[in-house]
Specification:
Elements (H helix, E strand, L loop, with lengths): L2 E4 L9 E4 L2 E4 L4 E2 L9 E2 L7 E2 L5 E2 L20 H33 L4 E2 L8 H7 L5 E2 L16 E5 L4 E5 L2 E7 L4 E3 L2 E2 L4 H7 L6 E9 L2 E10 L4 E8 L5 E7 L2 H4 L10
Parallel strand pairs: 8-13
Antiparallel strand pairs: 1-2, 2-3, 4-5, 6-7, 9-10, 10-11, 11-12, 12-18, 13-14, 15-16, 16-17, 17-18
Length: 267
């Protein structure tokens, strides 16, 4: 906003100042210089000093504060780039966490899953075992041929429930067969190598004998670890190609397993 001072060269009228939209009377903008002849001289220092008739100075009012209209507020130009950077950083952190956790999950669920130990139930009755296991035992004729035995001199009847297979030998509860990684017996579970199983087993045996099995999955070897003093036997069925345990079988009665067999050491 401009402030203008108008001077009358004739000296008959006082100078008038124009401010905003109104005229104001001004005190003389001419005053004699010291030592002059009384003739008023224009003093440039008073050019912007406008006085009303009452003698008070008139100054332009202070500019009002500028209040931004937040309705039209704009986002800083670099905020979008920062947001994208934050998103990428979060995705990177999540990817790193997944890469660190995934191997642990795979190891525990696929490579070496946690197993439940059946060892405390080895000498339980059939009904006691059924009460401890999730799932009711039912007759499973398909499993009869997968339970290893030394000869056809005994009759096997398999049952299934809770991923374990209890079986009868000649009508009596004869033992437990495992074909899943969920369970273990005497420290041995499906998926172990033969060397690992022999090293980790807690079964105390006297001797071991091996038979060759021709199963649907190929040729396998059945290792019979037996203890005649305790009259029981732990059988590890090992795949001939992968050399890993594919089944674990526990016989509660070693004598019945080997009855009428020729060539078994009776010492």
């Amino acid at each position: 906003m401009a402030l203008q001072i108008k001077h009358d060269d004739s000296g008959d009228e006082p100078a008038r100042g124009y401010y905003g939209s109104s005229w104001t009377e001004s005190t003389t903008a001419r005053e004699p210089k010291e030592g002059g002849n009384g003739e008023p001289e224009f003093n440039p220092e008073l050019e912007f000093d406008v006085v009303n008739p009452q003698g008070s100075s008139i100054r332009p009012p202070a500019s009002p504060p500028i209040i931004p209209d937040r309705r039209y507020a704009t986002v800083p130009k670099d905020s979008g780039a920062k947001f994208l950077f934050d998103v990428k950083l979060i995705k990177f952190i999540i990817a790193v966490i997944i890469l660190l956790i995934l191997p642990v999950i795979l190891y525990k669920t696929v490579i070496h899953p946690k197993t439940k130990d059946l060892t405390p139930f080895m000498h339980s009755s059939y009904d006691e075992l059924d009460a401890q296991i999730d799932g009711e035992f039912t007759r499973d004729t398909k499993m009869d041929k997968y339970i290893p035995k030394l000869a056809d001199n005994i009759t096997i009847e398999a049952y299934s429930g809770g991923d374990i297979y209890p079986f009868m030998v000649d009508g009596e509860f004869g033992g437990i067969h495992l074909a899943e990684r969920k369970w273990e017996m005497y420290g041995v579970s499906v998926g172990m190598t033969e060397a690992e199983a022999v090293k980790k087993t807690t079964y105390v045996y006297e001797k071991c004998m091996v038979t060759i099995l021709d199963l649907a999955g190929g040729q396998s070897n059945a290792y019979y670890y037996y203890n005649k003093k305790n009259n029981d036997c732990l059988v590890m069925t090992v795949n001939g190609t992968s050399n890993k345990v594919v089944a674990v079988t526990y016989y509660r009665d070693y004598k019945k397993l080997t009855q009428n067999l020729i060539g078994i050491d009776d010492d």
